[in-house]
Design brief:
Blueprint: H1 15-23, H2 25-35, H3 38-44, E1 48-53, H4 60-78, E2 88-94, H5 100-107, E3 115-120, E4 133-139, H6 150-153, H7 172-196, E5 197-209, H8 216-225, E6 241-248
Parallel strand pairs: 1-2, 1-4, 2-3, 4-5
Antiparallel strand pairs: 5-6
Length: 253
């Protein structure tokens, strides 16, 4: 991602991601209220740790994490635990090359109600101690691969993509190579988070998706013309839609 606050920076070119977060805000608030096990969390830990994976350097991550904190505080009050509202720590994660300086000097409010830390590294592997996270948030990050599939770069492979960086018009071998890499990456991502999250915690994933049966060419066309307000929250999502996946930990391993 381009750092800084210039014309071509991520912070000036991430409005679609921000709109998607606003659209699903009510859904995220609802699932936090329904799924987060604050009774279990309140009896075992303080502070509540929130990790935003793939935070980049703009204000989107601040918007998302601040909203989560406000919803959790409201949930504590509604359950009669106002005296037990914990402190919060937000852990901003992205690759080591991310512009954390811009995030902390330009995007982060001068006054906030939580502690912060940067955690550089790939979210496809372990980043945090065992059973240390209460809420994980990842918005428009999970589709990034950990690496280009090896067969894509091998000229002797049926999946060689001839130096192209896209696959919408490529062969099935190319598409399958990317899909297999994505499967491995998501598996590694989930296994790492299963180790890092506490029982009763919650993971919120906002990612792009396509319905079964949508061709690669249709995905490309849909991404170009679909208005952001068509984004869905689960079943029925079409080509180019965004999907919210909620994983309550303690029931998922």
């Amino acid at each position: 991602m381009n750092g800084g606050n210039g014309t071509y920076s991520y912070s000036k070119n991430s409005s679609i991601q921000r709109e998607a977060s606003i659209i699903v805000e009510a859904l995220i608030n609802e699932v936090i209220a329904e799924k987060l096990d604050i009774e279990n969390i309140s009896s075992t830990s303080n502070p509540i740790r929130i990790a935003d994976l793939g935070c980049a350097s703009g204000t989107n991550t601040i918007f998302a994490t601040q909203n989560i904190i406000e919803v959790v505080e409201k949930l504590y009050r509604s359950k009669g635990f106002e005296s037990k509202i914990p402190e919060f720590q937000v852990l901003f994660n992205d690759l080591p090359t991310n512009d954390f300086n811009t995030l902390f000097t330009s995007s982060l409010p001068s006054e906030n109600n939580y502690f912060v830390a940067a955690v550089p590294g790939s979210f496809h592997g372990r980043l945090f101690p065992e059973a240390s996270l209460h809420i994980v948030h990842c918005s428009f990050g999970l589709h990034w691969l950990s690496k280009v599939p090896e067969e894509i770069l091998n000229k002797d492979s049926p999946a060689w993509n001839k130096g192209k960086i896209y696959y919408t018009s490529a062969s099935d071998e190319v598409a399958n190579a990317y899909a297999s890499q994505f499967d491995r990456d998501v598996d590694n991502f989930l296994n790492a988070r299963a180790m890092e999250m506490v029982s009763g915690g919650l993971m919120l994933l906002l990612t792009t998706a396509a319905a079964d049966g949508v061709s690669r060419s249709e995905m490309s066309q849909a991404a170009a013309v679909m208005p952001v307000d068509t984004m869905a929250s689960g079943a029925g999502a079409g080509a180019g839609a965004a999907v919210v996946v909620v994983l309550p930990f303690g029931t998922w391993t």
